[in-house]
Automatic annotation (TrEMBL):
The lineage of its organism: Eukaryota, Metazoa, Chordata, Craniata, Vertebrata. Residues 163-210 form the SARAH domain. Keywords: Cytoplasm, Cytoskeleton, Metal-binding, Microtubule, Phosphoprotein, Zinc, Zinc-finger. Residues 71-161 form the Ras-associating domain. GO terms for molecular function: zinc ion binding. It is found in: Cytoplasm, Cytoskeleton. One of its GO terms (cellular component) is microtubule. Its main location: cytoplasm. This is RASF3 protein. The keyword Metal-binding applies. It holds the Pfam family RA. Transmembrane segments: none annotated. One of its GO terms (biological process) is signal transduction.
Length: 214
């Protein structure tokens, strides 16, 4: 019900109300990312999206950076933590179109169906995260909330594990993911071996060399 209440005003805002909100929004902007109202009533502006991805993304190998696993012309790698993308969009752009634009900006070959856009709201010292439907309009939400990202921010996540559309992944992508997991598993195994070797050495030193493992 709360989500429905938030969507309803979008259906009833008059052109004059939109104009007033944009003027108020632009007067509060501190980073020069203002909104522009066109004669046809459509407005354009900017949103920032935090990329919080747990799984590696797939890009063309010539565009890739960082830790990766190769497969022909594609590469799977992890995005760095805290990566924020700024997009210039219009009031007609839907959540699905925003996700597609994000993937295009990163030269990502992944299927858009793997991802979901969330809004993160701060109310009364509490943080609420809500998954947006494909048909919602992020720029409208930005306009209503104002320019302050601490009041409203957008985050891109993969679908939850139970919601993952595995058929959206190609065989090369899954193979790349397995290679990365194998590499990480081996790295963690080496770390554990070194840690326990250090423990063993200290124990042997404490025993004065009297006890030796068989």
């Amino acid at each position: 019900k709360d989500v429905q209440k938030e969507r309803e005003p979008h259906l009833y805002l008059s052109k004059e109300e939109v104009k007033e909100k944009i003027q108020s929004y632009n007067s509060s902007v501190t980073d020069k990312l203002k909104m522009t109202l066109n004669a046809n009533g459509i407005y354009t502006g900017f949103i920032k999206v935090q990329m919080e991805l747990c799984r590696p993304i797939t890009v063309q190998s010539s565009q890739s950076q960082g830790r990766c696993a190769h497969n022909n012309n594609e590469t799977a790698f992890y995005l760095p933590d805290g990566c924020v993308i700024t997009l210039h969009i219009s009031s007609t752009n839907t959540v699905r179109e925003v996700i597609e634009a994000l993937l295009k900006k990163f030269f990502m070959a992944d299927n858009p169906a793997k991802f979901a856009l969330y809004k993160r709201c701060h109310k009364e010292d509490q943080v609420y995260t809500c998954k947006l439907s494909d048909r919602e309009h992020p720029l409208y939400l930005r306009l209503v909330a104002g320019p302050r990202t601490e009041m409203l921010s957008f985050v891109l996540h993969e679908h939850e594990t139970g919601e993952v559309m595995w058929e959206a992944f190609s065989i090369p992508e899954l193979q790349n993911f397995l290679r990365i997991l194998d590499k990480e598993e081996n790295e963690q195994l080496q770390i554990l071996k070194k840690r326990y070797a250090a423990y063993r050495e200290k124990l042997e030193e404490a025993l004065g060399g009297v006890w030796k493992p068989g």
